[in-house]
Each structure stands twice: as C-alpha cells, then as structure tokens.
Design goal:
100 residues, little secondary structure
C-alpha cells in the first residue's frame, strides 16, 4: 500500500498497472479530476465512451462510416473517388476551363 495525499509522484514506465489503482468507483479506474498523460503512449486504451479530440491526427481511420454526420473542413482532399450522394450546393466559380 502506498498513500500520496499531496504533491507529485513520478513513476517510470510499467511500474504500476492500471488494475492496481484503487480509489475510484471501481478499482483500476480514475475518479473525476484532471490528469495529464502528456507525451505518453497508451498501448491498449480499450473502449472509450467519450473522447474530445482538439488536435493532432487520426491516421488510417475512417470517420463517419457507421453513422454519418456533418463535417466542416478548411481543405478537403480525396484520392480515388469523391462521391456526392445528395444534392450539392456550392459557391464555387471555375476560373478556367479545367474540369472540376
């Protein structure tokens, strides 16, 4: 048993398994608070019920394949096919005879 009531505890990689953490609603969970995992890599995150991604990249991941929603982009680039399956409204005005 180790009790830290104030201050900072720094551990090296793999020193504590998540299942060994107690004090949450269920052992192995974190209670509501603010935690920093800056520069960390979590190798098996499991299932996450809520995620708020404010930056970075999501590599090799399809977004909206199961449940489509809206999207707002500064740049949209497609390789292969670009399909519009509903009526499209555009403010685009071609500036040359190049096909769009």
């Amino acid at each position: 048993t180790f009790d830290v009531s104030a201050g900072t505890l720094t551990l090296a990689a793999s020193q504590v398994k998540a299942a060994s953490i107690t004090g949450g609603a269920t052992d192995g969970t974190f209670t509501t608070s603010t935690y920093s995992f800056a520069s960390s890599t979590i190798t098996d995150l499991g299932s996450v019920t809520t995620a708020d991604v404010n930056g970075g990249t999501i590599d090799s991941t399809t977004v909206g394949a199961t449940t489509a929603s809206t999207g707002k982009f500064t740049t949209l680039e497609a390789t292969g096919e670009f399909k519009i399956t509903h009526s499209a409204v555009s403010a685009y005005t071609p500036t040359s005879t190049t096909q769009c």
